[in-house]
Specification:
Shape: globular
Number of helices: 14
Helix content: 40-55%
CATH architecture of the largest domain: 3-Layer(aba) Sandwich
Radius of gyration: 21 Å
CATH superfamily of the largest domain: Thiamin diphosphate (ThDP)-binding fold, Pyr/PP domains
Low-confidence stretches: none
Number of strands: 15
Mean pLDDT: 96
CATH class of the largest domain: Alpha Beta
Number of domains: 2
Structural class: alpha/beta
Strand order of the largest sheet: 7-14-15-11-10-8-9
Oligomer: single chain
Order of helices and strands: HEHEHEHEHEHEEHEHEHEHHEEEHEHEH
CATH topology of the largest domain: Rossmann fold
Amino acid sequence: MITASDFMDAASAVGFDFYTGVPCSYLTPLINGVLSNRALRYVGAASEGEAVAIAAGAWLAGRRTVAMCQNSGLGNMVNPLTSLNAPFQIPTLLVTTWRGRPGEPDEPQHVLMGQITQDMLSLMRIEHRPFPNALPGVEPALRQAVKVMDEQGLPFAFVMAKGDVADSGLDQPARALLPAGRRADYRTGGERPSRAAVLALFLTLTDDATAVIATTGKSGRELFTLADREQHLYQVGSMGGAAGMGLGVALNSSRRVVVIDGDGAALMKLGTMATIGAEGPGNLVHILLDNGVHDSTGGQATVSASVDFAGVALACGYGYAASCDDEQGFSRAWGEAMTARRPALIHMRIRPGSMEKLGRPTVSPDKVAQRFKAFLAS
């Protein structure tokens, strides 16, 4: 058994300084230790998949990251680990617990996952080792993890058993109640513009110093077709993860960060908006292009017609949120979002459909990630 400080000190020595995750009782000592350490950053995620996306964004911004979860949460991590970390070659250190360990009494919902935890990691081609629970082995284990991640560009996992880390107290400042954000409504009810028209307008409004993360599907494809720039990251997978990734970047960069989201993707991980509101980066603008359908898969309707995304954003702690449905309204909302001191959301309703000649990114995801990381560091 080790203490949380034993792990944190050794992890800091090899560069790990950004933590995110979802709690588990086995993780309590470690999460409490990180939260109580003012030299480290911990972002509590609404879901395990969101934590992976946040960690990916933080890595792009130059941090070494740790994502922690219960092993049942590996199920929620499968999509981003395989369709974000793998193609973009983004490493993160995973610490997953081993609930339902064979031969160890546990709740019935943990039995199956306890039997297949290591198999799941292996199936995702993630190298893994038992969590280092003796002090002499902690730093060597972490150095080996770093070596593997640097060589492969992929995550590495420690599997934590019950009692690997000694109990520790929690010294976490209480979150203050946020003041109400400002709302703007520029809807006219007229003919809605296309996604491509709004993206083209966005490109005239933004500048070369702004980092842009476009959600998977036609948003990224249209953005690439209109203008491929080094500060653009086209998220080819991990649906719903763009906002979390943008948060990870925004918390670790002084640049303005814009997330171009879709209604289907935003609904998939709506909890990320609560995390963004609570963390409150004033350099994050969240643009939600809402055509009411899953455009990339045949135009099936989403449930966005009945969703007040601007209201949701304000309820989650955003400092500004606007509703609009034409280009003039979008321009007004963009100008006001530039002065927001907390995250801003622009909910832009558009018409379904896409560009007639729609390309796909010709730059491989790993090259997109590397040039985006270099842009953030420049």
